[in-house]
Amino acid sequence: MLRHRTYLRESADVDITFKVKILPFEKKLYGVMIRYLLRKLKVSGIKVVVRKKVMKRAAGYINLKDNHGKTFELFINANTSYRLAARYLAHEIVHIKQVVQGNLSKEGSSILWKGRVVSDYRSYLTRDVHDSMPFEKEAKDGERIADSFWKSKDFKQAAKDDASIAFIFRIENS
Hints:
Order of helices and strands: EHEEEHEEEHHHHHH
Structural class: alpha/beta
Strand content: 15-25%
CATH topology: Collagenase (Catalytic Domain)
CATH architecture: 3-Layer(aba) Sandwich
Shape: globular
Helix content: 40-55%
CATH class: Alpha Beta
Strand order of the largest sheet: 1-2-4-3
Number of helices: 8
Distance between the termini: 36 Å
């Protein structure tokens, strides 16, 4: 008899694609994380393309160009722990929600928040400007949602079904 595993169920309104070479348990873990965070932030009807790369300054980011509010490229820093990756994912998923709601957008080299130009992209990349943006403050607040992931039924089921995920959790909490 097959057990019903809700954490892996493909949702009709969220499509997650991995365009990166990662271990099978990582794919499962990131998939569970992303679905959990999207559900908690009430984001649906989108496609998320996950990429991993080594970044010197960024923890993660979403590509704002050509997404038309439906497909999002989400980049995760390859040099980070899974616990921090969950926080970074939550941060970026808040940005996805902001885009879906029409609050955050990019036109040419300008970043718009609620229809107003708040910065040009080059200035935005400087730490002072970046941290002062209202959409960044909102995303920073959203990172706390990631902490609840490790206690969620979704994670517990994934860890129960995959010894690698359970092992990673024990290592990161020691």
